[in-house]
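User: I've been going back and forth on whether these two constructs are worth ordering. Before I decide, could you fold them both?

Assistant: Sure. I'll take them in the order you sent them. The first construct and its structure tokens:
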Amino acid sequence: MIWFEEQVHPAVAQRLRVDRMILESRSGFQTIEIFENALFGRVLALDGVVQTTERDEFVYHEMIAHVPIQGHGAARQVLIIGGGDGGALEEVLKHRTVERAVLVEIDAAVINASRAHLDMIHKGAFSDPRAEIIMADGLTFMQGAGDLYDVIIVDSTDPQGPGRALFSPELYRSAARRLAFGGILVAQCGIPFLDPAPLHASFGGLRRALRDVAIFTAPIPSYCGLMTFAWASDAAAKRHVSIGELIERFAASGIDTRYYAPELHLGAFMLPRFIRDLVERPASPPDLQSA
């Protein structure tokens, strides 16, 4: 019996049984593994860290995509930084109003592996005529001159290896310049119960770049905790859309979801006290490890 073990914290690891190894390879940036597990289905891991699974990917991808797009209300141009598995791209393209979705991924091998073995996650989104795939470093792409976007989604790996730059103040400053008027940026900020550092980095960097910054959450079983996402915009009203308006937008969109709902959209911004303490008092976070 073979087990995949991920060290999610210096004191904690999770193990997933490998029922069938589908791919083991090394790109120019990282190790790539795809395997099957009886509970989670197909699993993608990069450098020994679970990135997404067939069973629970819908929670993460629906929230990182639909919260900003539904909150915006008229998003036509969407940029995804990272997201080589195609799950966020697939959710973005569910919206008929989206005219163009640009995905910038540093590692072509991740996209190639996902195209070949994770069609149950991307559902052919890479081949959608509205999708534009650019192989480039996300920070370098963002720092260049170019189009403006209504929604920017930073669907990064953990802040290690090629994903480290996607948590930097430079990335957030550059992203702010690439937002169209009324635009929204959303970025994953990790599991603060296990490690508050990514949340601190994202929240602090975004507050220096954009006026309205908030955190919302979703529970991701394969990530071992409550995932945080940062919302940032210069249009504060976008975060305070009424439930009635969200219900109307959701009905008009015609999209099908398994986790996202208008009521959940608003509720996701209601933070557990320990996360609220982290973002309100970032200079002296509570010692979660001693709990």
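The second construct, handled the same way:
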Amino acid sequence: MKIAFISPSISRALGGIFELERRLAQSLGIMAETSVDVLSVEDEYTQLDLSEWLPLRPRFFSASGRPSSFRYSSGLGRAVLEKDVDVLHLQALWTHNSVIVNQWSKRWRRPYLITPNGMLDQWAVRNSQWKKRIALAMYERKCLQGAACIQVNSLNEYNSVREFGLSNPICIIPNGIDLPSQREQLPAPWTDQISPDRKVLLYLGRLHPKKGLTNLLKAWAQASSQRSGSSPWTLAIAGWDQGGHEDELKKLAASLHLNSSVVFLGPRFGNEKLACYQNCNAFVLPSFSEGLPMAVLEAWSHAKPVLMTPACNLSEGFTRNAALKMEPTVDSVADGLGKLCGMSDRERSAMGSSGFSLAKDRFSWSKVASDIRSVYSWILDAGPRPGCVVD
């Protein structure tokens, strides 16, 4: 079976989707009688992250035109149209890639699958709404409606796709995670910023309004005033800025007098990212909208307790006692922070152990790749309808 992935980026510029598409492609590529090509648009981090795809060798092409977020690339368009593959797999929405998929489908009369990665959730659709209405009218709705199947990561995302008005077959297949290999403990990446006697609550991801970090800072200030006498905590915010949101957050932290208990670590990748997970005491994700966040799965894979919103679409974390639930409001986040920081070390350790078990049992990449390949076979009329496909 010949498969081609088409993505607006094959680097860290795409946030958590970079890890998802890369590991899925690699996991499919080692399966018998399966080949995977990856085609994308070049960005500032492409060359830096290209080796992460080995043994796959993605092809990438320059982008031009405005808006830059559209990622227009005539070179990518020509390369995809020449691709004589069985299935095309689109990894994100709202870019020139959707136009290319429409053209490929018309030329080859073969099926394609779409993974929206949370981009059809209500919050995401409302963001830059007028631009997306134009995109829908011009190319995106045709692309969505023509998909042989749409892959979602959770039941909540399934509901979002149906509420969007799409009637395509949908497969529910979660994201995967690699469990950390046994290795020596890395030193904390914040030794010059955080005293070793303080516990660390980590956020790691994009610095974007949908992540709820404004609420987190306000709630941190509120909860800190109520935490007198308990063990001191520092909130460590690691991530890459998007649209100047980091400056907004830093100004807010200063206005709330949080400079002694909040640190901004900047973007962290590779061993620095691993060191963040190894050395933190807990992880937080106060998002308004997610597909299925890799950051939470990574925290669980390192046996860390998690505080998150239902928008993270990982309800099994709550039922398996791997996470505490909070709503994306200041008061609810503050309440969740109080509960998490008020737990004993033993209680947090038990929650982290539950998260590790959940990551190991439910989210292995080998299972994810096997499920996706069974969907490819089904849409090619070469296999039965998989159990992950729902009406």
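Notes on the second construct follow. DSSP finds 15 helices and 14 strands in the chain. The radius of gyration is 21 Å.
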